[in-house]
Amino acid sequence: MGEQWGFYFDPNSCMGCNACAIACKNRHGTEAGHVDWRRVETVSTGEFPDYQETNVSLSCMHCEDPPCVDVCPTNAIEKRESDGIVTIDRDECIGCRYCGWACPYGAPQYGEEGLMQKCNLCLDKGPGAGADAESKNTQEDPLEPACVDECVGEALHAGPIGELMDLASEAAARKFEQNPTSVIVEPQTGEEGQAAANVETPIPYQG
Amino acid sequence: MLAAESGVIWVPRVHWGLFIATYLFLGGVSGGSYVTSVSAQLIRGRASSDVEWQSRDETSRWGSLLSVVAIGVGTGALLYHLGAPLRALTFAWNFTNYGSWLVIGTWLIVIFSTLATLDLVWNFFGSEKQGRTSGSFFVRRILGWIAIGGEPVVLNLLDRFSDITKPPQKLHTAIRVFGAFLGMGVIVYTSMLLSDLWTCPLWNRTYLPPLFLMSGISTGLAATVAMPAIFDGLTETVHQYSLADDALIVVELGILLAFYNFLQGRTGCMASQATVDSLNSVFSMPFWVGVVGLGLLTPLAMSLVMTGASALFDLDERSHTWHQIFRAGYVLKYSLVLVGGFFLRYVIIFAAVKLPLTVA
To answer: Is Transmembrane found in the keyword set (chain B) (predicted)?
Structure first.
């Protein structure tokens, strides 16, 4: 099993400019409007005077045990052993959108043709590209994800998790250990130096 | 689109629409029709008169026909929703994830449909069925119009096929009973497909399967028994099935209200509260009026009134006018059950709220 790849995100450096989302759209030529492989959310917490806004850049989290993979009838979605990137083989996708319901992050997107597309950590360009690409670990010069390339505040990084951990604070690393995704998220540091915000994976609903 | 609220990110969820709601509804009707069909055959021998025997015989055949029509149209609705429907038709070698309820359900539907279609041929065709004219045999009349050189080729072909393949009566009945279990499997599958996902509180594993099972059998029964009521008039069988449907409706209503109460009680779950809010605002019409009012309470009330009235008037001796009024009443009741069943699937799909991402 090759080293797992993922993202590192620091909301403290994110100004919410959406450059990451636009860069992603540009590189992959995704449809304008409702197809967003990456999106930026501004989340407000607290009330005045303890009000705070956090910008969160979200895409496929390349989960450790992706629920989209579990439900896909044709096994078109794969969690690659070689680099941990979750890919979609659009030649196998039937466009049932079951994965859309299964994903807690809203990562699967559907264009006009109705087939699934989502972030492939820039294994290759375009919807569905990269499903059969060589492992990021063995590529000579792996493509830098467009979102990372264009991030103005250097809030986003991508790479092998081991390398990304070098960027992470102790709190972020601790949080990541309990996290079922391949995204390291830095806790937001409030004005008084307190860890104030972190994106939480929803707890599976149990009826 | 995403809506940002205090501390949470609501995740977009508009993945399925009317066609999937229709598919889930018709899956329930199909399984329920088949169960009704088999039950009518099993109680046929205990009919009190020739008229009742005939009514149960007709009910059984209508159920057989409707189960195939419903699953056929339902599958069409599903295929229409898909991005690549032709790929789905190659499910036999394409659907390789046997842990997915979509795959389990596909096989259930395929086996059930095959069996129900074979059964339909045995119930409507064969030399012993020639010359039959009761309501459900309109199928034979229509196929009889397809003629080449004056010969009804399709009808003849189906008659011959039935004569060759039809098993002995006891085996046929055993196959039908097995088919009824498959039919219930199809109904339950439509709920397992949803409740296998943990992202939406409305797709609850505890409440949804029994709710869909009751609703599926109830709507299948309603569709099936409405047919002899429309084509042949009112019989004791129509009335008895109505009472059976009432029992299903009462259980369904109980499950639905317990489910609503459960969601309302989960005060710590934002998605549960958002679901309840939407059931009382955006979806209040389809839920409270469509499902609860028109689909459950009104049919129950109609049945109470008609049963009470039947206790006062002997069905056979009733005047033509009363007979027609009761007949229309039962048909309306069964139609409302179907309307409610559809709205239930509509609400379950459209009012589902995903657990939000929280910023702690």
So the answer is: yes
User: Is B180 a domain residue?
Assistant: yes
Helix H or strand E encompassing A54: strand A52-58
Domain assignment present for B314: yes
pTM as predicted:
0.93
Q: Does the beta carbon of B18 lie under 8 angstroms from any beta carbon of chain A?
A: no
Domain annotation covers residue B301:
yes
- Reported as a single tens digit per residue, the pLDDT across B161-200 is 999 999 999 999 999 999 999 999 999 999 999 999 999 9
Task: Find the domain containing B317 and state its range.
Answer: 8-126+166-358
Residues B40, B43, B45, B49, CA torsion sign: negative
Cross-chain residue pair A74–B96, CB shorter than 8 Å? yes
CB contact under 8 A, A202 and B199: yes
Residues 206-245 of B with CB under 8 A from A: 206-207
Number of domains composing chain B: 1
Q: Say yes or no: A193 contacts chain B, CB-CB below 8 A.
A: no
3-state class (DSSP) for residue B351:
coil
**Within a 13 Å sphere around the CA of A205, how many CA atoms are in the beta-carbon half?**
30
